Amino acid sequence: MPLRVLFLLTDLEIGGTPRVVRDLAIRLRSPEIATAVACVAPWGPVAGELSQAGVRIFPLRATQYWELPRVVSDVVRIARGYDVVFSFLMHANAVAAVASHWRKGDTRFIQSIQTTQSWPAWHWWMQGIVERAAGRIVVPSASVAQAAADYSSIDSSKIVVIPNAIDVDAFAQLPPSDSGAWHRLGFIGRLDPVKRVPDLVRAIAKVQGVELHIYGDGEDRANIEQTIKEMNVADRVTMHGRIPSPFEALKQIDTLVLPSEAEGFGIVLIEAMAAGRSVIATDVPGIRDVVRHNHTGLLVPVRSPDAIASAIQRLLDDAPLRDRLRLQAITHVRTNYEWENVIEKYRELLLG
């Protein structure tokens, strides 16, 4: 009988962690492992992708905190049919930890932390409590491992570092970037204040001959739109809204810029590198685990539109540099972040 694994996460909206869980649930299926996915929130776009791939979905449909007791009860009931509950992110980790009290000895619990963001502090306080219910804590980078130890006092011996991964061949098949008269910059991700997209808008106001395409939606959208107006760059910035996958966005840009204040990994970075796009990102934990300055991309200080602008201008002025960074980035991603290699680490964790 195969090992039955239930992945539990907060939501199945478009985002880095849902995409990682989607690929895990699909790629781990074998005669040895059977997978299913549950999410605390209502059905999202990634749930549709999982369903089409034949993965069973349990949307728990919570929209308010007061529904969490019912969600815990649902997880306890669902977990009776599974040998492992593998939860991702703080809210799902908390739900799984409470549910584990009714499944002691019957179900193995694993948690995953995917952020280095130090705030809100109560998230880390809560994570420090709920991690006691898990046998292992999986993180995607050394920076997240350090954050878990610093902010939640999690014993390093309990932490397993397994990087996130992508289908490198799928991204490598995208056509080469060819911007013609313009150099097309892009941001892809949630429009969250931690991403600091207004810094990117301020940066492009300082550089002639570039346009910016912003893909995503979220609570910081109004602030970004106001910054576009203030900097008088509406003719060079396009807000595309939420997209179903990064492929269409990457077809339209030459360089990805990620100006975040904090990241656990930044999966969009390796997607862009695999697609042969240049990357500029902030020199912060999580990102610096993925991007090597002057080797696979350019790193800049956080909260510095001037530094972002200088990096953009450097790429515009130096075609050999762009080509060298792109080629080295593709090799780096193939070596370190291809699913073929990473999936074996998950299999060892689950079956070991």
Give an overview of the whole structure:
With 352 residues, the chain is an alpha/beta fold. The chain has two domains: 3-165 and 338-351, Rossmann fold, CATH 3.40.50; 168-336, Glycogen Phosphorylase B (Rossmann fold, 3-Layer(aba) Sandwich). The protein has 15 helices and 13 strands. The protein has helices at residues 16-27, 45-52, 68-79, 90-100, 121-130, 142-152, 168-172, 197-204, 221-230, 246-251, 267-274, 287-290, 305-317, 319-336, 339-351, and strands at 3-9, 33-39, 56-59, 84-88, 108-112, 136-139, 159-161, 183-188, 210-215, 237-241, 255-258, 278-282, 298-300. The strands form two sheets. A seven-stranded parallel beta sheet has the order 3-2-1-4-5-6-7, sandwiched between helices. Strands 10-9-8-11-12-13 form a six-stranded parallel beta sheet, with helices on both faces. Helix 12 links the parallel strand 12 (278-282) and strand 13. Helix 1 (16-27) packs parallel to helix 2. The longest helix is centred in the last third of the chain and has 18 residues, at 319-336. It is globular, with a radius of gyration of 20 Å.
